[in-house]
Each structure stands twice: as C-alpha cells, then as structure tokens.
Amino acid sequence: MANLFFVSGVVQGVGFRWATCQLAEELNLAGYVRNRLDGRVEVWAEGDSADLAELAHWLETGPDGAHVDTVSKQKVEFKGYNGFHEMMTI
C-alpha cells in the first residue's frame, strides 16, 4: 500500500523532514520526504495500512515547532522504494 501526503502550514525550517524520516524508519515504511517550493512538505510512504495510518495521524501535528494547517492524502501506486530518504526540494 502507498500514500502520497502534502502537508501545509509552518512545516519547513522546523525539522519536519528529519522527524518524518525518523518515524518512517521506526514504522518500517519506505519512500521519501521533501520540501516543495510552495512551502508544503511532500511525503511518499509505502508499507502496511496500520503503519501508514500512524504516520498520517502524526503528520497532522508534526514535530515540535511545526504548525500544520492541512494534510492531504492520496492513494498511489506502490513503487517499491527501499528505505526512507530525504529528497531534494522541488
């Protein structure tokens, strides 16, 4: 199962990507997290549904210092990523 999330609010410059990677690794999720030029954070996550649900719940608040306004989620086609990584801003 795979989900693509877009998180908006005060989510850049507050350790959001690092914290997302830490949680995703703890949950054995694969995929990536990256900043977008429009100020959002993009998260592609692959794994089992319970772990994806836990990540989705956490994204609603994020790490200390973040202020999340909205989280959108789309089901996407599984790509088979290995590990969870920070990617370049787009």
From TrEMBL:
It holds the Pfam family Acylphosphatase. Residues 2-90 form the Acylphosphatase-like domain. It comes from the Bacteria. Its EC number is 3.6.1.7. Keywords: Hydrolase. GO terms for molecular function: acylphosphatase activity. The keyword Hydrolase applies. The active site is at 17, 35. InterPro entries: Acylphosphatase, Acylphosphatase-like_dom, Acylphosphatase-like_dom_sf, Acylphosphatase_CS. It catalyses: an acyl phosphate + H2O = a carboxylate + phosphate + H(+). Belongs to the acylphosphatase family. This is Acylphosphatase. It comes from Chitinibacter fontanus.
